[in-house]
Amino acid sequence: MNVSVSPILIQRRELAAPVDTSLGHAHTERWSVDAIEALFDLPFNDLILRAQGVHREHFAPNQVELATLLSIKTGGCPEDCGYCPQSVHYDTGVDATKLMDVEAVAAAARLAKEHGATRFCMGAAWRAPKDRDIEAVSAIVREVKSLGLEACCTLGMLSEPQARSLKDAGLDYYNHNLDTAPEAYGRVITTRDYQDRLNTLGHVRGAGISVCSGGIVGMGESRRERAGLVAQLANLDP
């Protein structure tokens, strides 16, 4: 593992006068696809300014967090996600591996911390982990947390008890992407449906783990379908 990173501070010139960066949308309202498309129509620099306003409401404006991502179980996934080289459905040259042991992951996490990372993210190519897999990952999470790092995982679909087990182990974040809009989903993936993704996100939130979720653009979706993905993400419960 070769990590070469350093903390970054992003500086900007202060604006001479306050600027309204509101998106004109109450936080408690649900976003419609039409409302998202209206954002798409904004001049680019105006949209950047408004996005910066939202960012400053939730994060330190001139700092970024450094995270390191490690594949702890690569390849051999039975899903047919059209974008993923780890699927067994495609010949991509990726060899399947077993889950890394605790000591190997801990060594990678220590190296990441030495290079400035404060969050350590671990990905495993599973459709849905078995309970014995969750036990093994929980041991890894506990080791990563003992190093003073935030722990993040992406393991596929989770049941409610599995999400609770990961929370008990100290997991801070769980990544589970929606990938695309509901209307476009079947053109990208056929081995699960959209509700499966939403169910896992619900289990993760219910366990008290913070959610990381997003999507991919450029997979043949229409402009409106792209807006539909953004609306789905915007309307997820915190």
What does this structure look like?
The protein has a five-stranded parallel β-sheet with strand order 1-2-3-4-5. Helix 1 (about 35-40) crosses helix 8, helix 3 packs parallel to helix 4 and helix 5 packs across helix 7 (about 195-205). It has eight helices and five strands, in the order ααβαβαβαβααβα. It has a single domain (about 65-235), classed as TIM Barrel (Alpha-Beta Barrel). The model is unreliable at about 1-20 (pLDDT under 50). The two termini are about 35 Å apart. The chain has helices spanning about 35-40, 45-60, 100-115, 130-145, 160-170, 185-190, 195-205, 225-235, and strands spanning about 65-75, 120-125, 150-155, 175, 210. It is of the alpha/beta class and about 240 residues long.
**Major sheet characteristics:** 5 strands, parallel
In CATH terms, the superfamily is Aldolase class I
Shape: globular
Query: Could you give the count of β-strands?
Result: 5
Structure characteristics:
TIM Barrel; disordered N terminus; single chain; 5 strands; alpha/beta; 38% helix; 238 residues; five-stranded parallel beta sheet
